[in-house]
Amino acid sequence: MKQRLADNISLVAQTPGLDAGAIEVVVTVPTFRRPEHLVRTLDSLKAQTTERPFAVIVIENEAEERAGARAVADLFEDGTHKGLVIVAHDRGNCHAYNAGWFTALTAFANLRALCVIDDDEIASPGWIEALCATSARFDAALVGGPQLPVFETGSNGKWTRHPVFTPHYHATGPVPALFSSGNLLVRRDVLQAMAQPFFDPVFNFTGGGDADFLARARDAGFTAAWCQEAAVRESIPRTRVSRRWIRDRALRNGQLSALIAHRRRANARLGRVTTIAESLALALAALPRALAGFARSGCLLNALYPVHIAAGRILSEFGYAHEQYRNPAD
Question: Domain end: 224, 240, 256, which one?
Answer without folding.
Answer: 240
